[in-house]
Write a structure and sequence with these properties.
four-stranded antiparallel sheet; alpha+beta; 616 residues; Heat Shock Protein 90; 11 strands
């Protein structure tokens, strides 16, 4: 199902419809009047201009509806708020945003060109038709300037709702294409040159129309005088050949003459083909004199030179203004990119130099203010990091000291438990109690060793003692310790080892503890009667070990946060095992490996551990 129109589409299409109708109703009556056309000629041109500009605007509206429809999903998503969008879709939308105004202007201009040349009214000569088309083009093109401002402003507000990362990638792509440095000078050149061009061309057309109308009145007065002075005197004579001689003389002067014996009132008006017909009564009959409207062209040479010079000077001024603005914006851009660098944070570099435009100067002041905030924040962050490192060292020393003090008596308890179990005659209840003491003692010892290793990792004092280990040995030792950490549940571990796994050069003791911590968490969280483990050769060399967690109580997102050494405190569950999981990740990464969590939906999650062969 195609989504409904977005707010941007409705706004842009409404503006274009309003501008199309407004321009049509403005151009149709105003252009003939500015060109001093009247009577049937004015009525015919008004009607044709209204049809051509209005129809062209509706065609442009349909075309732009299709263009915007291609981006409807993206525009609807941007209306809804910040969303993840594709960079390519944003680039395509940015390109089409500039084509919308061109698509609105082109059809009316084509209609005006056809109206003024091929399909002009029969009463209009070619010169007048071209003048009408050019002046109508000036009005339509001038109307496109405010429409362009409105459309680009609407698109800019839409792009502001796009994610910053996506917009940054769009800007970087535009920079690589080299378009950003060209846009500002070119657009500012057009912004200055186009209004000057419209005014120059319009003034030249109106001025030339005044001269043409004066020339037409002079030609009409000449025709009237010719009829009065020559034809009237010849018609009153008895010699018919005199009238014929007067007619021939008028035709040689460029006038077509017809003598009617009937009486007709005096009038001047257009005729088919674009000429003018003058009817003037004589003493006997009426003379009909036809002549061309004017010999003058659309532009006079002087007006053309003045218009071209004005447009060229305006274009040069706009280009220089655009380059100056582009330099200032480039300076501001460099200032923004300098934020956060060491030189700015240290206060040894000024972010912004002096600029020429007030808007960019205000932006520069804001950047300098932001740089000052960055410096304050950076110094505070440095102090916080130093304080945190000191606290971490003190915490590590405290945990190491306390853990070492706990480890000695605990080892003594475990040793005496084994001694009593091996040397004394015990009842079944006593054996069971000693087993429980030994199991809890080993669990507590593993936790103490975890705390000791964690403190060494924080202090960056943990050193691996590598040796060659077969994957079968690593599995057996990890399973034995993992069962001690897995609680009292009767969960079976189903292990599978594929062929082709080479011997690993690892720290047997610490890697065993890391894998045991992951297995213990899987056993504690399992909602089934068994947990599966699988070891297979890794594509990069080494081994890949998968440990499934058949539980939906602890989602994969939470397991991933427990692997993080600095997670959100509210995300933790089983804090002892969470500490063990973060340490397990640190140990595996010290070996050059990785550990990740994969969500399997209703089946739970899977820990995936990759361990390289390791250097000798």
């Amino acid at each position: 199902m195609k989504p409904k129109l977005s707010a941007l589409e409705l706004r842009v299409l409404a503006w274009q419809l309003a501008f199309a109708l407004g321009t049509a109703f403005l151009v149709a009556p105003l252009v003939p009047r500015l060109l001093l056309l009247s009577g049937p000629l004015q009525a015919a041109l008004t009607r044709v201009l209204l049809y051509s500009v209005g129809t062209g605007g509706l065609v442009a509206l349909g075309h732009n509806t299709w263009v915007l429809g291609r981006h409807r999903k993206l525009l609807v998503a941007l209306d809804a708020g910040p969303v993840t969008v594709d960079r390519g879709a944003l680039l395509a939308l940015a390109d089409d945003s500039g084509r919308l105004v061109t698509g609105w202007v082109a059809p009316p201009l084509v209609g005006l060109a056809l109206t003024g040349t091929l399909f002009r009214p029969e009463l209009v000569d070619l010169t007048t038709g071209v003048s009408v088309a050019l002046l109508g083009t000036v009005f339509v093109a001038a109307a496109s300037l405010p429409l362009s401002v409105l459309v680009r402003g609407a698109f800019a507000r839409a792009f502001e709702r796009a994610p910053p990362d996506a917009m940054r990638s769009v800007v970087e792509a535009e920079e690589k294409r080299g378009k950003l440095r060209q846009h500002i000078p070119r657009r500012l050149m057009f912004a200055v040159a186009l209004p000057v061009a419209f005014i120059s061309v319009g003034a030249a057309l109106v001025t030339n129309a005044v001269v043409r109308r004066a020339d037409e009145r002079d030609r009409a007065a000449t025709a009237r005088l010719l009829a009065r002075a020559a034809l009237d005197s010849k018609a009153g004579s008895r010699e018919g050949s005199g009238v014929d001689e007067a007619v021939l003389a008028a035709e040689r002067a460029g006038y077509g003459v017809t003598i009617n014996r009937g009486f007709a009132p005096a009038r001047v008006g257009p005729e088919l083909g674009g000429g003018i017909e003058l009817a003037t009564p004589l003493e006997q009959g009426t003379a009909h004199i036809r002549f061309g409207a004017s010999d003058l062209g659309v532009f006079s040479p002087v007006s053309m030179v003045v218009a071209l010079l004005s447009v060229m000077l305006a274009a040069l001024f706009g280009l220089g203004l655009g380059r100056a603005l582009d330099d200032d914006i480039a300076t501001a851009t460099r200032g923004v990119r300098l934020l956060g660098t060491d030189s700015v944070i240290a206060g040894t570099t000024r972010v912004m130099r002096k600029v020429r435009f007030r808007v960019v100067e205000e932006l520069g002041l804001a950047i300098e203010h932001l740089a000052d905030r960055f410096r304050v924040f950076a110094h505070a962050q440095e102090r916080a990091i130093a304080a945190r490192e000191r606290a971490a060292r003190m915490r590590g020393l405290f945990f190491a000291s306390v853990s070492h003090d706990l480890k000695s008596p605990l080892n003594a308890i475990l040793g005496f438990t084994n001694l009593v179990r091996d040397t004394e005659q015990l009842s079944g209840g006593q054996v069971e109690s000693l087993e429980l003491i030994a199991k809890r003692g080993r669990e507590l010892l593993a936790l103490i060793e975890t705390i000791l290793d964690a403190s060494r990792v924080e202090a960056r004092q943990l050193t691996l003692v590598r040796e060659r280990v077969r994957i079968e040995e690593l599995f057996d030792e990890s399973l034995a310790k993992g069962r001690d950490l897995g609680g009292d549940g009767q969960v079976e571990v189903v292990a599978e080892i594929l062929d082709g796994i080479p011997e690993l050069n690892v720290d047997r003791l610490r890697l065993t503890r890391a894998l045991a911590t992951i297995i213990g968490h899987a056993l504690r969280s399992s909602e089934k009667a068994h947990v599966r483990m699988r070891a297979a050769p890794s594509r990069a060399g080494g081994a890949r070990i998968d440990v499934e967690v058949p539980s939906t109580r602890v989602p994969a997102r939470l397991l991933a946060s427990m692997l993080d050494p600095n997670p959100d405190p509210g995300e933790r569950e089983h804090r002892g095992l969470a500490l063990g999981l973060s340490l397990a990740r640190a140990i595996i990464e010290l070996h050059g490996g990785t550990v990740a969590v994969t969500d399997r939906g209703a089946k739970g999650s899977v820990f995936t551990v990759r361990i390289p062969i390791g250097a000798t």
